[in-house]
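User: Fold this one for me? It's TolC family protein.
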Amino acid sequence: MKNKIHFIILLLFMAHTMARAQTADSQSNSFSLKQAIDYALAHQSNVLNAGIDEEIAKNTVRQTVGIGLPQVSTNFNFQDYLKVPTSLLPGEVFGQPGTQIPVQFGVKYNSSVGIELNQLIFDGSYIVGLQASKTYKELSVRNSTRTRIETVVAVTKAYYSALVSTEQLGLIDANLSQLTKSINDTEALFKNGFAEKIDVDRLQVLKNNLETERENVTRLLVVNVDLLKFQMGMPIQAGLELTDKISDVRSESVQVQVIDSAAYRNRIEYSLLETQRKLDELDFKRYKSQFLPTLKGFASANKSFQSNDFTDLYSRNFPTSVIGLTFSWNLINGGQRIYQMRNAKLAIMKTDNNLFNLKNGIAQEISVSQKMYANSLRSVENQERNLGLAREILRVTRIKYEQGVGSSIEVTTAETSLKEAQNNYIKALYDLLINKVNLQQATGQINY
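Assistant: Here's what I get for TolC family protein.
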């Protein structure tokens, strides 16, 4: 009975835990675009890993600095000669010429303890390494900045895609509502003998197609929201509601200006390549510094213990201490350093070429993105006008049909035209928002 009670309690506890987990997963989050970006910068895996890389770079700098700091080590040694080493000495030493006398040198037990200090006094490679480690840290910070910018761009585009799908769904719902009313009115006219059955069927076909399209857009909206959650680093199972409106986003226009000849300097990619060039220059200096000598200082203190009796081994000691300098200079190494320097110089030239190419590429990217954004603005304005005209045409066509001076084909054609105008508007709206983000990224306006 007691085990049964424990089992029931365990089941209740597990059920409560699962319920809490499901509640956490299904909890709905309401985010604006800015809030979504802030969430991504705090939770997205790539951003978190970039932060870790920054910490690794900081530790690498400290590690490099540590090479030039005093290095202290200790040692302890114990030896038990099971067989004491034997040497042969000439018999003349002992008055026995012509023979060799075996003699044992040493004692059975030997032990030693010591401490050693090493200090790097001068090394050209170390000095260059210190400079390179700081530049490496700078490179990691800029890589982290690039990761944050890329994350912001991805989140923004995914957010806009979800907003466009929401807007498209709203247009379809409004169209379905109007179409349902038209079908009801046409059925009433048919029952009273003022319309034909084919008129109702034509409208019903349009409604069926529109309902199918609505289902597709609904699924697309779910896909876009899931993509947004993925880009944010949010669990896919979590609920997410978008609070920004498409009208608010459209009002935030991007100013299209004449291309600035120095606009490339706002791009993190150019800064990264400039940092890489610094590393290439330091690599050249490192090879050059290998022509210089190296100077190190050292000091050590040791105590040795010897005895044939283990219990008496540490009763007395024989101290030794020494200080000194080590000077080394690699004078000839088969020309390796010369060719290493030449390769390092060639690497700098390659980076210079890449900088020039990137500069041109950024200018071309800005030019294209400006034109695409301007075209998108005009396209949305045109499609909005077309959408308004399509609605007005449908309204007038319905009135004419209800008054008996228009045909059902005209109504069907107007409904189809409205649907086409809505689709064109949605496509133009999506292009506008994506081109807006591309322009901001191209001109370096996205900074985090």
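One thing worth pointing out: Residues 6-10, 15-26 have pLDDT under 50 and may be disordered.
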